[in-house]
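Page header: ASSEMBLY MODEL / two components / 668 residues total.
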Amino acid sequence: MSRIASAFARLKADRKVALIPFFTAGDPSIEETVPLMHTLVKAGADIIELGVPFSDPQADGPVIQRSSERALARKMTLRKVLEMVTEFRRGDASTPVVLMGYANPIEAMGRQNFAALAQRAGVDGVLVVDIPPEESADWVRTVRANDLDPIFLLAPTSTEARVEQVARLASGFVYYVSLKGVTGASHLDRSEVADRLPKLQAAIPLPVGVGFGIRDAASAAAVAEVADAVVVGSRIIQEMEASSSADLHPRVAALVSELRGAVDAARRA
Amino acid sequence: MKMYDLPDARGHFGPYGGVFVAETLVRALTELREAYEEASRDAEFQAELAYELKHFVGRPSPIYFAKRLTEHAGGARIFLKREDLNHTGAHKVNNTVGQALLARRMGKKRVIAETGAGQHGVASATVAARYGMECVVYMGSEDVARQSPNVFRMKLLGATVVPVESGSKTLKDALNEAMRDWVTNVESTFYIIGTVAGPHPYPMMVRDFNSVVGKECVVQMPEMIGRQPDAVVACVGGGSNAMGIFYDYIPFEKTRLIGVEAGGDGVETGRHAAPLSAGTPGILHGNRTYLMQDEDGQIIETHSISAGLDYPGVGPEHAWLKDSGRAEYVAATDAEALEAFHLLCRTEGIIPALESSHAVAHALKLAPTMGKDQVILVNLSGRGDKDLNTVSRLAGITL
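Prediction written out in full:
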């Protein structure tokens, strides 16, 4: 069983919802990326989603855009992201790591080469924002052949036919984008999520996570009532932006602990 | 002659093109494709488009024999397709009229656009005013500074111009920002892309709307000289004016199709915007095509004297035409374009856009290598009023 599948099986047994924090590899600094991954796990993260910075992040709002720009200014590359995962695995053999990014850095490395290197580094899943199902036949084969889970997005605008298509292609989990917009937007439609999630869960034999627009403990709790996983990105990066190097780890840990508490409380309620 | 019928149903031109976008945009693109296919088959829509092109844009645009330019170059006769005479001063309006009619048909009351030089922004603001729609134009803040006359035009036409501060602050970043707006306001908003790039159906649709240029030439050239030209030359940034004039010439295999990219300081210096000449294939802005990128797949900053060509990608159909050998792609430097700009002003009394000056520059190189009985047709895609500040600064003229 893959690390992602085991993690969700364990959570299900404990009747818990997965908490998946996201941040960009290389921001706030290259040296802090791996220590921050460990901090997130200690504070209650079940899966880490690590952003691979790209020069043209079309699906991202201003917070993740800025974060990508800072990481690229420090010469962050996909190759270095894979080295970071290798280093993380030396201290953590069980927490799943999902890479999230855009197609072009992977194309430049070569899909086959990337998938082989990612597997060797200890990556578990890959979400490429701009490879939708219709362009993914070859991609899914390559990723699966290297024991990586291809993660796909679904949106409020996805038709039933597309949900079925994603159900066939995806493994690990499916990521439901909870709003019309880019990452970090502030208008999560809770009733839309509550209405749609059960339908998705019925149609897809995988856990369904929700992300984009989860800003605080309250919105995380609302999503946790219906979803199998809660993804928080821009809010974590904002906390990192507001921190100094002295209080970076405690502040990020405090935020993730708070989200953890909210997510767990929502499920018990 | 075998039929050219690209793209395929999923928007692919061989290995290029496609729909490389986030799931959040897929339904909007599907709806757009269906609406466009329906409109393409609707005689009423086509009749209205033809009426607008004739009475609002001023089509057909003439072809003009550039006699003194020809004498200066020495060799093949140079003809100019006068897209600079269109309403708003460039070929861009052919496409925005089409897309605005489509937006209206789809019931969208708000249009958005990205712009580099500002020509597409002006053409979008123009049609939005014409059809009574709200218009927001995204423009890199660098371009806002160097194309101020067009910014003023857009504002006069009632559009909101949003300067984009992210990334390199140029056309590619404006495109990113327009996409973000679209994904957020997808129900009310129609995104008018200005070039033959982006996800399917845009490369096909923008080509089709601009193909009126080549369709006219195929009729006009035999009327003027009794046959088709030996070469058709057009500048290529994203590539909309070039696809517009090339498309109907693809079956005329004796006619060479030559795209001229922005060579900037020279392709060998790395400071240019010539992905077909010196780039490699990758994925950007929803399609697979040739890109200016580093070895890690990050998009690199481009350089050109002309804001309209300052783009790190190129329409996927050009990528296919290059690989298949049907079209050739070369580059003209900033200096060559500027020289051609001044030459056309003084020999023909036509002030060309700096973009179009790249095509003229290549025609000047090509003509002396050809016989006097041969013919080059240049797409003079726009006029140069918007470039007067740039050129005067370089020439040390105070306005």
